[in-house]
């Protein structure tokens, strides 16, 4: 358990703009082979509503578990949402993200979730810019939570998958210190189309002629970071087509991603198979973390 003083200082960083130095007792233990074995939040510490930007929605939560070593741990950053505007089922998504964060923290990882600005108050490219700002904060402050700033893996789900993909694809929205080691894209859209719904139009704008330039697909074919791409056969055909198109484009560019097609509708917990959607995706995430964790070793 984190020392009381460390917890108090961590709670105070929501009002800080600079960095602090806090010692942690941490050691990565890896993801369990049985993702259903540990889903409670016992012995997990949450630090809530840490500000990473100026808007009221620019906040993130951090979950850490018990560890007894100074070893820095990989950091998972959840970028999740089910709508570009404010009418989605945010409560359900947040609960599912919390469950996934608890699982990650209990298995030796640092877990972060971020919220982002919503349409119509915030339009394209606010989502990508919020991802950049949040990842910059995580990179600069990972050590406060025992995390490794060189092993940051954002996980985009639903609308969050587009915002993460857009951040990756459009270098003009990135910041100098928003480093990531790899990324997971789960059941997202990556190329807006003219038949987008009202919430998507509120974000992308009414001028559909601009949608091609706001696509993430071309830019994603030019990045070097490893990508884990997943969608579900139970997703709406629109999302299935988006996942298949992105995979084909990445493979054609010589950057074929790890891919998993799930059997049930996805959720943020699908990356750990907490919803029984696919143990394969959980295993591919383990492989990605292992690949990143092993870099630089002799």
How does this model look, in words?
- The protein has 298 residues and is of the alpha/beta class.
- The chain has a single domain, classed as Alpha/Beta hydrolase fold, catalytic domain (Rossmann fold, 3-Layer(aba) Sandwich), CATH 3.40.50.1820.
- The protein has 8 helices and 8 strands, in the order H-E-E-E-H-E-H-E-H-E-H-H-E-H-E-H.
- The protein has helices spanning 4-12, 90-106, 126-141, 159-169, 198-204, 217-220, 237-252, 279-293; strands spanning 44-51, 59-65, 73-81, 110-114, 147-158, 183-186, 227-232, 258-262.
- Strands 1-2-4-3-5-6-7-8 form an 8-stranded mixed sheet, sandwiched between helices.
- The protein is globular, with a radius of gyration of 18 Å.
- The model is unreliable at 1-30 (pLDDT under 50).
Structural class: alpha/beta
Q: What characterizes the major β-sheet?
A: 8 strands, mixed
What integer is the average pLDDT? Answer: 86
Q: Which range best describes the helical content: under 10%, 10-25%, 25-40%, 40-55%, 55-70% or over 70%?
A: 25-40%
Spatial ordering of strands, largest sheet = 1-2-4-3-5-6-7-8
Termini gap: 33 Å
Radius of gyration: 18 Å
Number of strands: 8
Please state the overall shape, judged from the principal axes of the Cα atoms.
Answer: globular
Proportion of residues in extended strands: 15-25%
The CATH class is identified as Alpha Beta
The CATH architecture category equals 3-Layer(aba) Sandwich
Number of domains: 1
Q: How would you name the CATH homologous superfamily? A: Alpha/Beta hydrolase fold, catalytic domain
CATH topology: Rossmann fold
Element-by-element helix/strand order? HEEEHEHEHEHHEHEH
């Amino acid at each position: 358990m984190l020392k009381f003083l460390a917890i108090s200082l961590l709670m105070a960083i929501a009002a800080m703009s600079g960095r602090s130095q806090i010692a942690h007792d941490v050691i990565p233990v890896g993801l369990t082979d049985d993702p259903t074995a540990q889903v409670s939040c016992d012995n997990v510490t949450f630090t809530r509503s840490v500000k990473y930007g100026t808007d009221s929605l620019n906040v993130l939560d951090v979950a850490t578990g018990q560890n007894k070593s100074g070893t820095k741990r990989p950091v998972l950053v959840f970028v999740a949402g089910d709508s570009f505007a404010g009418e989605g089922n945010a409560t359900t998504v947040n609960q599912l993200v919390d469950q996934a964060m608890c699982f990650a923290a209990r298995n030796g990882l640092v877990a972060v979730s971020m919220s982002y600005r919503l349409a119509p108050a915030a339009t394209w490219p606010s989502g990508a810019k919020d991802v950049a700002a949040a990842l910059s904060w995580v990179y600069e402050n990972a050590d406060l939570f025992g995390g490794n700033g060189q092993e940051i893996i954002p996980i985009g789900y639903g609308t969050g998958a587009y915002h993460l993909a857009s951040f990756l694809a459009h270098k003009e929205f990135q910041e100098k210190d928003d480093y990531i080691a790899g990324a997971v894209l789960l059941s997202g859209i990556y190329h807006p189309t003219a038949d987008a719904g009202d919430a998507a139009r509120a974000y992308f704008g009414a001028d559909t002629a601009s949608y091609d330039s706001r696509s993430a697909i071309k830019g994603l074919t030019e990045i070097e970071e490893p990508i884990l791409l997943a969608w579900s056969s139970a997703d709406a055909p629109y999302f299935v087509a988006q996942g298949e198109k992105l995979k084909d484009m990445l493979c054609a560019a010589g950057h074929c991603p790890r891919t998993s097609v799930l059997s049930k509708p996805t959720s943020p917990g699908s990356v750990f198979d907490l919803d029984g959607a696919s143990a394969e995706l959980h295993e591919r995430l383990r492989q990605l973390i292992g690949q990143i964790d092993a870099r630089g070793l002799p």
